[in-house]
Amino acid sequence: MQCEQVKGADEIKAFIRFLEAVDLPIEASSIEKRDPPEPDLRCVHATDGPIAFELVELCDPNLAKAIAVRSEAYIRTSDPSPRIISKKLRRKYTTNLPIELLCYTNGRIITPDNVIILTVVPYLRSWRHTFRRAWLLGRKGVHELWSV
C-alpha cells in the first residue's frame, strides 16, 4: 500500500510539472488521484470539462536499480520506451471521460527526448487505443506526441 501511495504522489508531482510547462487550462486544485481500473488522475479542463490522464514513467529498470542502491558500477542500459508504451496501449480503463496519456521521465532513463519521440510515435499512430492525445514530459520540455 505504501508503494502505491508513493507512486501516486510521484505521479501528481509529474503532472504538476507538466501543467507548469504546457498551456493547458487545468486548475491544479481539481486534480484527483484515482484507483485502477480508472486512469491515474482526474481533473477539470476549463473548456473541455472533466478529463482523465493516465501517467507512465519511462524508466530503465537497470538504471533505476543502480540509482536506488547508489551503485557506481558499470551497468547496461537500453531504451525501455517500446516495451513500456506497448504495455500501456493494451490496457483498458473504466471511465466515461476522455483520456490523455502522459509519458514522463524522472532521471531514470538515459534515452534522449528526440529518440523517445521517434520510438513511441509509431506505436501511438498504429495501435488502437483509448487515448485522445499523448504527451511526453522529458528532459527538454513537453512534447505533444499524438492526438486524434
Describe this structure in words.
This protein has 148 residues and is an alpha/beta fold. It has one domain. It contains four helices and six strands; from the N terminus they run αβββααβαββ. The protein has helices at residues 2-21, 61-68, 81-90, 113-126; strands at 32-33, 41-45, 49-57, 99-104, 131-138, 141-147. A six-stranded mixed β-sheet has the order 1-2-3-4-5-6, with helices on both faces. The chain is globular.
Quick structural summary:
This protein has 148 residues and is an alpha/beta fold. It has helices at 2-21, 61-68, 81-90, 113-126, and strands at 32-33, 41-45, 49-57, 99-104, 131-138, 141-147. The chain contains 4 helices and 6 strands.
Sheet with most strands: 6 strands, mixed
Structural class: alpha/beta
Number of strands: 6
Shape: globular
Alpha-carbon distance between the termini?
35 Å
Unreliable sequence segments: none
Structural domain tally? 1
Query: Could you tell me the radius of gyration in angstroms?
Result: 15 Å
